[in-house]
Here is the input.
Amino acid sequence: MRVAVIGAGIGGLTAACGLAADGHEVIVYERRDEPGATGAGLTLFGNAFGALDAIGLGDTVREVSSDAISRMRAGQRVPSGDWLVSMPSAMVPTLRSLHRAELHRALTDALPAESLQLGRSAAVASDGQPIVTVDGAEERFDLVVAADGLRSAARARLGVDRGLRYAGYTAWRGVTAAGIDVQDEAGETWGRGRVFGIVPLPDGRVYWFATESTAAGLHAEDEREALRERFGNWHTPIPACIDATPAETVLRHDIYDLARLPAAFAKGRRVLLGDAAHGMTPNLGQGAGQAIEDAATLTLLLRTGDPDTALARYDRLRRTRTTAIWRQSRQIGKIAQASRPVAAGLRDALLRATPPALMGRATQRIQRWTAP
Ligand SMILES: Cc1cc2nc3c(=O)[nH]c(=O)nc-3n(C[C@H](O)[C@H](O)[C@H](O)COP(=O)(O)OP(=O)(O)OC[C@H]3O[C@@H](n4cnc5c(N)ncnc54)[C@H](O)[C@@H]3O)c2cc1C
Here is the structure.
């Protein structure tokens, strides 16, 4: 089949690699001049690697990632450093961390060179046809995969856009310039309306993220200074992570998810994939993992013969799986960002009382991917 993929993010690149390896002729249109390599670090759970393995990409991504985090003490702490709950490492044996730029590079390298067209913005036809318009010229394909991210224009052109919702908090992200000794401890620290997360990268540097419940659209002149004011007296190595990150590299984005998921992920020979289909809050660390699952599911289903049946199954399977995770992610975001003293105190007391194994079992269900 001739397949157009709109968007060279993690979802679009993974789908393109899987489909190209199966002999489909794939063209990826990416509006940026460079494939999206910003966004600091990332964690991927076993479900993502199960899906990557199913389409022959698992080792490619293992090579640029590390499982060191899965052997560290991880879970939730309070700003003083006391643990609320620590996850038994047996519950996340396949968790790996990596730099996003490395993932993009690995996936781009795995694509046939002629597949990727950078600096080209593409629009899918709104009349039901698998046609894309690029630079004013229309081109027909057998399938169009719209992987154009949370603010997907394709979702609206398919007539299934139900809008975005501001999650109520903003997020900063960064990567330290040099290695930081995290003393074999990772995970998140939950304060009142604020969260700080520590993720060691394969080369010893630390990817960190921080959130704060606040109005949308606010920015500080110096975001690193804003972080020092908010997290400077939190436990080690949080202040050191902030200090070791060049100020100009600190990213800040308000967190949005899809207000409601589309009523269909596939319309004719046009499918939505990744954040375009199910943009969710980052609280479960599953957005990219679900985009990868989408890509593998689509690739495997298209091996089974009739593409229209394959797309109908893709729609059903992926909407069921991602709706549950999108919803759960939103709920966890509300709990993690609790800012009133009573609500945050109750949250902490409940977490302290929760057996770690129970927490582990809840996340294990998400970490399992079943091939179609
Ligand atoms: C703070 C934060 C932390 C996160 N942490 C994790 C984590 O640890 N683990 C995890 O699994 N997920 C995580 N996520 C979620 C993850 O980043 C996303 O789910 C994932 O990157 C989505 O990939 P995508 O390919 O669907 O979309 P995107 O990465 O948004 O890619 C879309 C691409 O399409 C391109 N594009 C858009 N329109 C057009 C057009 N018209 N023509 C051509 N190209 C176009 C864009 O330029 C972009 O390159 C996190 C998200 C946030 C905000």
